[in-house]
Please model this.
Amino acid sequence: MKTIRIFLLLTWCCLPLQVAMSQILSPEVQTGIGDYLTAFSRKEISVGKIKIDSAHVEGKTLLLFANMNCSYIPFREDNVKEIYKEVGALLPQEYANHKLQIITDKHPIEQLIPLQRGAAAKASRGKQESPLVTRLSVPYSPKYGLQNRHIALWQSHGYYYEPKLTRWEWQRARVFQTVEDLYTQSFVLPYLMPMLENAGANVLIPRERDTQTTEIIIDNDGCRNNSYYTEKTGDKRWYTGSESGFAHLRNQYINFENPFREGSYRAIETIKKGQESYAEWVPDVPDGGRYAVYVSYKTVANSTTDALYTVYHKGGVSQFSINQQMGSGTWIYLGHFTFDKGKSDANKIVLSNKSSRAGRIVTADAIKVGGGYGNIARRIAEDGIATENIKSSDVVTPVEAKQLPEVDYPYETSGYPRFTEAARYWMQWAGIPDSVYSESKGKNDYTDDYKSRGIWVNYLAGGSAVNPDEGGLNIPIDMAFAFHSDAGTTLNDSIIGTLGIFFTNAYDGVYANGTSRYAARDLTDLIQSYIVNDIRALYEPNWTRRGMWNQSYYEARVPRVPTMLLELLSHQNFADMRYGIDPRFRFTVSRSIYKGMLRFVCSQYGQEYIVQPLPVDHMSLHFTNENEIELTWQPVDDPLEPTAKANKYIVYTRIGDGSFDNGVVVNSNVYRAVQSPGLIYSYKVTALNDGGESFPSEILSAARAFNEKGTALIINGFDRISAPADFVSDGLAGFADAIDHGVPYINDISYIGSMKEFRRSIPWMDDDASGFGDSYSNYETMVIAGNIFDYPAVHGASMLKAGYSFVSCSNEAVEKKTVNLNDYKLADLILGKQRQTKIGRGGVMPLEFKTFNKEMQEAITAYCQSGGHIFVSGSFVGSDLWDNPETTQEDKDFATNTLKYKWRVNQAATTGKVKSVASPYKEFAGNYSYYNELNPDGYIVEAPDGIVPAGENAFTIFRYSENNISAGIAYKGTYKTCVLGFPFEAIRTTNEKDALMKGILTFFDEK
Model:
């Protein structure tokens, strides 16, 4: 009976309108129902008119067939119940006893409630295998997270070669200080992927994930640098494999050259007991820093499932187990690590033949350290033919060919960092077959790029339980995700908002393992719902939810696993981008996507889910005795997610100029450790639960000086992250980063240059003339430094050299009185670029990041009145209290009467230079420079404050060199203050910082 009913539903759905329409319901009733559904839907989504196309009676059931607009509603049990109740009330009395069923997109609306298919999906996934990569040194295993799951995702487009113009270019326009090819990376790389990995997932992407522009290849077939590969023989001997492997034979690759088919690999039999054999890769690192490490190997008959790799780095040793029965002949990511300059046993990667099972085969091939620059060289195809670019959604337009002039076009690499390039080029460098990355056979890189991503998913999964009938890398991909931003503009500051796309009408409506393709609708609904609901709750109540399109976009149609294509917002619309380039928004949206993925994947396995916690705050670090410290913190509840509660924590430690270790799990929010004198110890904390690990806290530091002169408290008051300043006026609008560039989280990989076209009326003409929002491109290959939340160590290093011990805390710890300032004779308040900041259009949520809130003012005032000395530095120490919409007289009185300064002017200087001037306080001397331009090393100070002394015994001690505006003051009375209008940590050199800090501490120490 059920089969007959489904047949009838499909038959009615497919009938022409004039045939399917009946006189069961009058046109007035059908219109009324459509009007109700339209009004109901528009409470939640932006949608066209919903219509009842037809009605049909089947026995005692009344079937109403609604158009596709109805399917955009995010159906849940409560709103489905409400819809049926209200629609039932609109029906004629003769149908009062009929069961009502509303059908849209070929399904009753109750069947479009997400996660109704979990049991069936679970049954089709086959036996659970060892995952591709297991992180053995991670001290937790997320029981209700994404442990052992595999997710494929990609971040839109990328720099590509356009043969019709014989140049490399972006696939989208430069607009609002970014370009979509980079913009979506600013969500995926710093936020989304770490969240998924912290939940235990293996995340695979078809673009370079390391923004480091140095790349080092170490291979058994030889190295094109001073790195080396070596082997150590135990009970078993290494031998050369019988198939091809990787070799690095050239600096650039053309046509379809594949480095993974040009060399050899090494192999050995595994042992369970006895003397191990090793392969070692030792990179010659040109500059110390943070690098991604990728391994490669060959899958052979009887490959091991637990190849043991060990990475030696500045933070210690990290181990990984690799299932070599999957992932053959490509780059497999292990993680990011900090390496010292040069080559040594402290910087290396080691592979052992020890295994849980003897007699299997482990293989060894090249290792890649760092991201590097693109090395795929392109020109027009050999026959001189290029094809026209067609859209991903276009499945009917014939491909038009264009014959280009007969010119000897040279092969050209992009000259850009590899992370900026499109997926098609990464795939070639990563050994993916050219049948995957170049369907056009080299004639059109644009279409090859978007097509390659979906085909790549199937290649990854080929041979596994989720895609058993295709060849590939045998990785059981659980889901795929395409992250895009959309086009389109509005002139009235309205939000274009978030669109989700999936496609069901392919491969007979099922995925390769038999799961219904409507699983992708569930995935789309969950992710879109989390995004929109979280944005509305935290930032913008009027954020627009667009449709859930069941349409044939290539990236949604081709993958043989559940896939969503997200259009987060319009990168061409100023109202969207006022939120879109804010790091807070990026974190929230990425967390929303992670939550949607988590719920979806867990449902496929019939598994409970728990969301990883938010980062901790209210941190404090102090000495309990001569050499023991105590670190405390507080967990942060997530108002949007009840499962995201911490039950344990991980404390990571860094000693001196080393790197953080692998961490230790603690059960409470208190941690004690012993420190050796003369060394700076730094700590960061993550929150932990059965769903995974949070993002890290800020970093606190402490050190005990030899023969200390005193102990200072460093207060980290710089926790701001934000978008740049913006403005709206008659006919003009835009971002004004010369006034305030904003503050990236750690760094910014998507900024391309300042906005240059502010006239709203100027339309887009082509990607070289983007119209309103058009932006410069002078920074599009640079990673821009932001707030690294690690400044107590910077200030403390100079204090330690001056003979002072120090401890540190967060500003919240002072404001909530968990730290008593009176325990310290000296205090150093780091304010960086702290200032009161809106998000988006402003006026919806309270301003954040005030330099001195009421609690901080009270604490500092009491401290100074008790004789405490305080040093304060920051770009907006004056303007935040005088020149903002919410300033008060109490703010000004605090600065004037307690800290003894007044604000004179914002944007006081541009050259980044200050000089000491004559004053009664001779301890202050010398000339100093700070970062005044965007750079990869330290955040920009584009708008330092001019401040002047207030009251007796307060004097100017520094002036900006270019104009003699007062840049810093000092006061001596019953207590002492030193306040600078530029941040101490932004000073360029260590010697300059040490000299300035020594002068400040000497001033405080003078009787």
Notes: The longest helix spans residues 583-604. The longest strand covers residues 681-689. The radius of gyration is 31 Å. The chain is about 20% helix and 25% strand.
